[in-house]
Amino acid sequence: MILESVIILIYSISLLLIFLYALAQLNLLFNYLRAKKAKDNCEKFNFSNPNEIPLVTIQLPVYNEMYVMERLLDNIAEIDYPKDKLEIQVLDDSTDETIVTTKAHIEKLQASGLDIKHITRTDRKGFKAGALKEGLEIAKGEFIAIFDSDFLPNSDWLLRTVPYFKNQEIGVVQTRWGHINRNYSLLTKIQAFALDAHFTLEQVGRNSKGHFINFNGTAGVWRKTCIIDAGNWEGDTLTEDLDLSYRAQLKNWKFKYLEDVETPAELPVVISAARSQQFRWNKGGAENFRKMLGRVLTSQNISPKTKVHGLLHLLNSTMFLNVLIVGILSIPMLYIKNEYAHLKPYFYVMSFFVLSTVIFFVCYWHMYKNIYGAGFKNFFKYVGMFFVFFSIAMGFSLHNSIAVLEGHFGKKSEFVRTPKFNITKFKDNWKNNKYMKKNLSIHVVFEGLLMLYFGFGMYSAFIVGNQGGDFGLFPFHLMLFVGFGYVFFKSLASKV
User: For this UniProt entry, which segments traverse the membrane (predicted)?
Assistant: First the structure.
């Protein structure tokens, strides 16, 4: 009974942590709904007065971006802002032939009168954080706008964001990500679904109550003095944006999140690219939990509620580990439940935690209907999307849990960029992308084994006990089977 007791204990702790995270999401939903009714009275620069238009530097950190570099430069060149108040830095760490083609394209833009500079480094020390830091040293702007290579800001983007910096307490203005290839495939739809929840419910819910939010690495503007005051960019985690965001807010800088300003971007269209992005984000989240835990807990400037939300925010990626633990242990728990009759009261109590799924369902529905509209037809579509999203999210749980464990245990790894494709239509071909990894991760083998494991879990529902089976966990195991099956077969197909 010792092994069974250990399984029950670990399973219960993981369920409890997921439930607490769900409660935090529910609180963010209430914050979000209240914020939608509130009027924004934030003071803004009057750009009709030339004296109030500040000097802005746009930083474009890039690395081997053959497929999107020309699109990025042409798009940024169309930004509507006084030319004498705008500087553009192309922070180019490329090691392939794009270093030459980018230089030639920049020279053409310079000839048109645009203040754009091509800045290269002899090594990638600090990766993206290092490039941003070196560019900052010579940046002329009072405010620093940052765009990754797959982002396409609208021409009025600076006119809609920079005015908020009239409030001297604001250190960052962050905008919502849009998705130019949302409907390309099931994979892009799922990624868009997850990101939409973050950029509506979470960012607004946290920001409206003064809780910690994060600059998302792109599609935002920093006050230069805020970056310096917070300690500047540091490359000791894989999510330098989250790191600097917390250091700035611990210094009492305010963040302004603009849900109504959408910045279009391209989602990864291949699962290997999505995997590398997920790995970096989740490992970086765990690294920042290690780095920021003590600072958040001991800070005298923030409320207990903000501390709780901050810690759960930093533990966001760790929820994948809890989901994986619950999933793997759920099958032994199914047998324990039907073997030990005296534990029935415990399992009745444990059934309460299905409420976590209900909470997530309600929270995500509010996000979904804001984008697609309410009504029975859209709700019916949402139910299907929610099932598919949760299944595939759980299918990523092994891969992301490994990233989380590496982050928590301090294992260092290289900053692996996400390959860009410049693909928006289904007929576009991605298979010849030179930046895609050709090798298959060993993780994929274990994902295939987990697919079979949860298939066994579904079979177990028919044979356990002496009352004709137990189907309480069957839907959960079905979602895990579908999720790991999707990730496994999609990963194999991407290498063919």
Answer: 6-30, 311-335, 347-367, 379-398, 440-464, 471-489
Catalytic entry in 92, 241, 243, 470: 241
Over residues 428-477, the pLDDT tens digits come to: 555 566 666 667 788 999 999 999 999 999 999 999 977 778 999 999 99
Dump pLDDT digits (tens) for 111-146: 999 999 999 998 888 999 999 999 999 999 999 999
Q: How far apart are CA 424 and CA 188, in angstroms?
A: 10
Break the chain into its structural domains and give their ranges: 2-32+317-493, 46-186+208-269
* Angle at CA of residue 198, ends 192 and 203, nearest 5°: 145
Q: Residue for token digits 């409206």?
A: 208
| Assigned token pair, 488 | 């496994």
Based on the residue annotation, tell me whether 96 is a catalytic residue of this protein: no
428 part of the active site: no
Contact 264, 178 (CB under 8 A): yes
Catalytic residue chosen out of the listed positions 93, 148, 243, 470? 93
**So what CATH class is 46-186+208-269?**
alpha beta
For 154-159, the CB contacts below 8 A with 24+ separation are 154/262, 154/263, 154/264, 155/78, 155/79, 155/80, 156/80, 157/79, 157/261, 157/263, 158/56, 158/79, 158/80, 158/81, 158/86, 158/221, 159/47, 159/80, 159/81
DSSP string for 414-464? ---PPPP----STT---TT-TTS--SPPHHHHHHHHHHHHHHHHHHHHHHS
Q: How far apart are CA 423 and CA 418, in angstroms?
A: 14
DSSP run (H or E) holding 226 = helix 224-229
